[in-house]
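Entry type: protein chain
Record version: 2
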Amino acid sequence: MVKSSTAEKVRYSDVTETKAGGVTYTPKEFAEFVADRIVGESAPISQRAVRVLDPAVGHGELLLALLDRLDGPVAVYGFETDPEALAEARERLSRTHPGVEVNLQLGSFLDHVLDDFSGGLFGSSDPYDMIIANPPYVRTQIIGADRARQLSQQFGLTGRVDLYHAFLLGMARVLSPEGTAGIIVSNRFMTTKGGASVRASLMTDLRLREVFDLGDTKLFDAAVLPAVLIARGIGAETVSPSFCSIYQTKAKPSHTAADPLAALSHEGTVAVPDGRVFVVQQGKLDTGGDTTGVWRLASDSVESWLATVSDNTWGTFRDIGKIRVGIKTCADKVFLPKKWDRDLELHRALTTHHTARRFRPEPPNRKVLYPHHTVDGKKRAVDLEEYPASRAYLEEHRQTLEGRSYVIEAGRQWYEIWVPQNPSDWPAPKLVFRDISEQPTFWMDLEGTVVNGDCYWLTGNEDLLWLALGVANSTFIEKFYDCRFNNKLYAGRRRFITQYVEQFPLPDPASEVGMEIVAACRDLYGRMADSPDNGLERRIDEMVWAAFGLPFEEV
């Protein structure tokens, strides 16, 4: 969810459950779930008040849930940049818990961290015994490049910065060594390159206890997929954190639960009253032995399955060649309009996700003006004098194209495509695929088309490309993806991006089954010129499972 308060404050939490007067709160059941996990992990505190912090208070729903579960003296601290929300939170806390010391401030938690916790271990402020939080979720594009750069420097972040990354590291700084934190975050940081520095810091600066990947449960009315982290301070014992994931499935249920949060106590397929079915997995957090590694769920069954795959792996897609994204023009309306009113010498057929189809694409229906060629093995812009019709068209749009100042500043011609890729690669057979899809959608391009930036592509040894085509479109790769990368979006969709696809395994291409897969994929491609062949596609699927030493599974 995203609720905007100020330029900095875009809350990810306060989104569902509308209350009287139009005020919105974090779902009560979700707040109670996090509070229960914190209390269950916390060490007892005596002879003083328990210091509780919410670094992004909103309307106070999380604090209320935690206070309902605490006995004895408590001092509450919180920060909020929305004055109306802060006033609402202060009134609710004072009314429902009059004996609690309430210290809520209008301002930024990150400023508090930098001002009060920068010297020594805890600087000039005391650490907090409990933290309950749903930090702001704001992408770099919204907070701005300057603010993102500042946060990166102040908190040691690398890659694309989200505001909640800084909040996570800030909370790690201010949590007592024996304290406990429960944090609701987007699950993106667990698997993306941009989250690597955050993962490393959380693994070293906290003692993680539980990780819940809540996937597409839609606990929030937003495109963000939530996760919950339960952690102790750095003084607590180091243990192997548990990992629980829940995602929607089309499989038949074996259990029932009152809601998705209640389903977390099960393992397997669980139905909830609204008709949805989820698959719940229980295991341990695995980072591959690298603090920056992708977070995934490990269990005895998953590890055994992956070990069998490894034993039957000859290489990976990375061994075929470099996976690239398609062209990026930064002026699509000029270079690749939906309809052309003339034919030009520099027109090339264009592959986009609109013609995507497994194994063999639909015929290309778009063209791109592609002003690049290869000279002596090097990429060059063409001489427009040799292409008068194309030159006339580009001159009509010269003002627009010259508005891309970064092209000129890079020493390029004003009419060049910003990222044209290597022109000499286009005629070769290419394995092309979509970024996001529920079912893997990989196809072979034998038409020499230019690939647009909404797709990825790979070229190399042709037999290996056909082998990769069969593997990539298999149900085997769906299970491999889920076991190895643990990164799904809503409605079971997966992201097929370079960092994942380059690790897809290949069976031995010289083996009997490897050669059978290659031949069958070629055959299927030819047959699909007339009509699909579902029977042959299924046989290829079964061969891929066998190639990795595994029995066929319905996924």
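Comment: The longest strand covers residues 175-186.
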